[in-house]
């Protein structure tokens, strides 16, 4: 694709999803099957309204079927599936209708709560709809009254899937055929939030009453080593803490337990529900304000404001004998903001730690929530 977007002052090229690849390959195969002619390019209208013209590769004619592939292009997004060939085989059937399944390198769903039911190929709803709509168009073009059987496969899929969340989600044997718009936008926040939504929906479908959230790997390590919980029970939400709370409320979780490093969670006291540094870094001013409220002298406040890391700030507080009181006050503000975002109907608990100083502050309900999560 040559279409681009401007993001953070950079010109970034758009790409297209595995779902678009599957739909385009199926459309090309069906066209060749009914026309008995070779087709080297295929046009595909994506749900986003952007039309693609894609090169058709690896064309092979069978007795009652045609096989071909489309090469995945993620644009300037760091997409591990870029360059992979997504194959489709389309076979005529006597009965009307279109059946879609996955072959080698396409994952199979083994746990509830995902887009597809247990046992189905991990070809999501929008790609399935794209395949059906495009095959209906081809059938109408050739006045074909029969049906189609569609098989999608990705030769590299099983290897690529090891670098994705699929094994953790219970999708085995390959990648997922994904995409809601058909287009890949580089470094898309929406795509990252969609990944969080998928994991949370699965946790809820498995019977979870409480969601265990952590921003990243530090939190996962702390959950395992200090709280003795299975880190796989946690959903890593990166900087999107506010969005994760919104999703938990939408899915009907009874409560949320957030466990995170002070470097991330301090920003929540300033009501920064997206903690990415591009939106600001208010850590030291917040810590200085709360430490000052607990009696830290002006000279030490100035010293704290000059700290680069939260651990350095904690060292100042510890020497002044104010670490525990400041962390307690900080946790109170964090909880207020989290509860305000979550709404009254959802319980919120929180634990905050440092890799150097260990557990710093914890809400009164966190232990009971952790026990409930451990039992599921």
The helix tally amounts to 13
Q: What proportion of the residues form beta strands (DSSP E)?
A: 15-25%
Mean pLDDT: 92
Number of strands: 20
Structural class: alpha/beta
Tell me the span between the first and last alpha carbons: 46 Å
Helix content: 25-40%
Radius of gyration: 25 Å
Instruction: Specify the biggest β-sheet.
Output: 5 strands, mixed
Strand order of the largest sheet: 6-7-8-12-9
The backbone outline, from C-alpha atoms, is elongated
User: Residue ranges: pLDDT <50 for 5 or more in a row?
Assistant: none
Description:
- 39% of the residues lie in helices and 24% in strands.
- By secondary structure, it is of the alpha/beta class.
- The strands form 7 sheets. The chain has a 5-stranded mixed β-sheet with strand order 6-7-8-12-9, covered by helices on one side. A 5-stranded mixed β-sheet has the order 17-16-18-19-20, with helices on both faces.
- Helix 8 packs across helix 12 (323-342) and helix 9 (283-293) runs antiparallel to helix 10 (298-305).
Summarize it.
With 376 residues, this protein is an alpha/beta fold. Helix content is 39%, strand content 24%.
Main traits of this protein?
376 residues, 5-stranded mixed sheet, elongated, 20 strands, alpha/beta, 13 helices
Layout of SSEs?
Layout (H helix, E strand, L loop, with lengths): L3 E4 L2 E4 L1 E2 L1 H18 L5 E5 L5 E5 L1 E5 L3 E7 L13 E9 L4 E5 L2 E2 L1 E2 L15 H17 L5 E7 L3 H5 L4 H4 L1 E2 L1 E2 L7 E2 L4 H17 L4 E5 L2 H9 L8 E3 L4 H11 L3 E7 H8 L13 H11 L4 H8 L4 H10 L3 H20 L4 E8 L3 E5 L3 H10 L1
Parallel strand pairs: 9-12, 10-14, 16-17, 16-18, 18-19
Antiparallel strand pairs: 1-2, 3-15, 4-5, 6-7, 7-8, 8-12, 11-13, 19-20
